[in-house]
Amino acid sequence: MNYDFPLPDKLPKTPYEQSKDISFTVEDNKLDRLTLTMGPENHGWENPWYGVVDIVFEHDGTNTTVGPIAVVDTGGDAEFYPDGDTWVIKNIDIPTCLDENAALVDRLMSIPDVTVSKELKTLRDKLTSMGH
Question: Cα 32–33–38 angle (5° rounding)?
Fold first, then answer.
């Protein structure tokens, strides 16, 4: 089961909170999973974006928090996007931009106890392989 959490087109001020009532049942002695998808509501953002989130599950008055989780999305940039286990980064007019991206990725990955998305890890690897 997938549950979507679209973000408003105008970036929200942080901290930003969004909640949704969901119903998800796992039978006794069984395993199951659910996915949560967050991102721009209209997919009109041109630039990649990132987020750091905590997810709180509430069941029968008990809260379970998962996070922080750091994620990145490609936006609509046709020259900067993930491709399998790497990223395509081409036609860079301003190389210092990659240094800034690498610094941001490093900052996200250094958050205490953070779980880093696969896409963010592979972006770090790609930037390192490019000397950033």
Answer: 165
